[in-house]
Amino acid sequence: MVSELFARFQALPESLAATPILAIGLTLGAFFAGNWLFSRIGRPNWLPPVVLSACLLSVFIALAVDYQDYQQGARWLTVLLGPATVALGIPLYQQMHHIRAMWRPIVVTLPIAATMAAVYAVVIGWALGATPEVLASLAPKSVTAPIAIGITEQLGGSVPLMMGGLLITGVVATLFVDLLARLLPVEDERILGFALGLNGHAIGTARAFEISHTAGAFASLGMGLTGVFTALILPLVFRL
Amino acid sequence: MPMLRGFLVLVLFFILGESVRLLLALPVSGGVLGMVVITFTLMVKGSVSNDLAQASQGLISVLVLLIMPGVVGVFFTADQFSGQWLAVAAALLLGTFLSVLTTLLLMRAVTTRGVGDGE
Question: Does the ipTM exceed 0.85?
Answer without folding.
Answer: yes
